[in-house]
Design brief:
- By secondary structure, the protein is α+β, with helices and mostly antiparallel strands.
- Among the domains are: about 150-225, no CATH class; about 230-310, no CATH class.
- It contains 15 helices and twelve strands.
- Strands 4-5-6-7-8-9 form a six-stranded antiparallel β-sheet, with helices on one face. Strands 10-11-3-12 form a four-stranded antiparallel β-sheet, covered by helices on one side. It has a two-stranded antiparallel ribbon with strand order 1-2.
- Helix 9 packs across helix 12 (about 215-225).
- The longest helix has 26 residues, at about 315-340.
- The radius of gyration is 23 Å and the shape is globular.
- The model has no long low-confidence stretch (mean pLDDT about 90).
Length: about 400
């Protein structure tokens, strides 16, 4: 049984108040299955004599977009920390007080999982400055598609979930205020709908656990798409430009993205100048009977490795362009930070972790450097936020 299967069975047993023994056993099974605690073992294996762990990131590890991927400890896939007493929990673990840990927190594997981030500590006399881009993918997608109201919302510092809900339902939406209950619908729609996602995408993003009903989901999708016509058009333009390029072997554009064909490969030229490759592109009928764009790549939707022919479409191409462009913005920000003398010890998705002499630099200083626009996207509304982590890394 996989984790999701066990979680579903626990939910069913909880609702039906069935066999308590079976319920307890399933809960124990779920706790023991936490692969995240294995990261402690991975850390022990890869730490060097000076206490540093190296080789944790693979350049261009994500073959489609060129983003970095994690190795060893897998910092790109760390559990969140939700407890407010991290200091106390860390001390109990360091002292080996497992009984005390269990009596206070109950679920020991869960606490160990939440403490994984805190393994990373700055060297003596230093502190961590943690900063990340705010809603970078939503900003880049709006910029690529030319969705004006979204760009204005970001430039004005608005809550994008409220702004989205307001645009979707045609009423003012204020967090914890007027029509505040609609913000949740705006949030889940923002997380799931940007790349042509349907009801399945909403569910996988937690729509049902947020309290939405399954019968509501199609309406939410339609309302989001109606509120974001330029993004929807961008999906179709991306697909048409890619298909036309494969058909004619001539260059075609979709807004700021250009498609080219040479050397038996479809190339997506990004605004920053980098190109994504789609090897041996071909038009083939899909399961719905319509012609779709396919290419050869590593891995497939089922999660297996190896080379296979893969299908793509407007939403997926838009996702590739957005994530790859966001990656290029991050790498330029990292270059500027290093040029300014900051030591980046790790980076997780759109976040950088800097080790700096205690009290010598500020969070605002780092965020202002990160939010500077590269020359090739001067009008993309970038923003960054961060916090100090004086003793160890954690998620604010």
């Amino acid at each position: 049984l996989g984790k999701k299967d066990v979680a579903a069975m626990i939910s069913d047993l909880d609702k039906n108040s069935c066999d308590q023994e079976a319920l307890d056993m399933l809960k124990l099974r779920l706790q023991m299955a936490k692969s995240s605690v294995k990261k402690y073992q991975a850390a022990e294996r890869c730490v060097c004599a000076d206490g540093r762990a190296r080789g944790l990131f693979q350049f261009y590890g994500a073959n489609r977009t060129g983003r970095f991927s994690g190795r060893h400890i897998q910092l790109q896939n760390l559990p969140q920390n939700h407890i407010s007493t991290l200091d106390e929990a860390r001390e109990l673990v360091k002292m080996g007080e497992i009984k005390m840990l269990e009596s206070i927190y109950g679920n020991v594997p869960d606490i160990l999982s939440q403490l994984i981030r805190t393994m990373l500590v700055p060297k003596e006399g230093c502190e961590f400055i943690v900063a990340d881009f705010s809603a970078i993918e939503a900003r880049v997608l709006a910029w690529l598609a030319g969705e004006r109201w979204r760009l204005d919302a970001f430039r004005n510092g608005e809550d994008i979930y409220c702004a989205s809900a307001s645009q979707m339902f045609g009423v003012p939406v204020v967090k914890h205020g007027v029509n505040g209950e609609l913000r949740q619908k705006g949030k889940v729609a923002e997380l799931a709908c940007g790349y042509q996602g349907g009801s399945g995408a909403l569910i996988s993003m937690g729509a049902l656990s947020m309290g939405l009903k399954e019968e509501e989901l199609p309406d939410i999708i339609e309302q989001w798409r109606a509120a974001s016509p330029h993004i929807v058009q961008f999906w179709w333009d991306m697909e048409k430009a890619a298909v036309d390029t494969v058909k004619t072997h001539e260059e075609h554009a979709a807004g700021r993205i250009r498609f080219q064909y040479y050397s038996g490969t479809l190339w997506m030229a990004l605004p920053g100048g980098r190109k994504l490759a789609y090897l041996k592109p071909k038009l083939q009928p899909n399961r719905f009977g319509r012609m779709s764009l396919t290419f050869e790549g590593v891995g497939n939707a089922a999660g297996s490795g190896g080379w296979s022919r893969q299908e793509t479409y407007g939403g997926k191409l838009s996702e590739n362009a957005t994530q790859a462009t966001a990656r290029d913005i991050l790498t330029e920000a990292m270059w500027r930070l290093e040029k300014a003398g900051f030591a980046i010890i790790a980076h997780v998705h759109d976040e950088v972790i800097i080790e700096a002499s205690a009290g010598h630099h500020t969070v605002d200083e780092v965020c202002s450097i990160m939010a500077q626009n590269p020359d090739w996207c001067p009008d993309c509304p970038l923003a960054a936020a961060g916090y100090l982590a004086p003793d160890y890394y954690f998620k604010d």
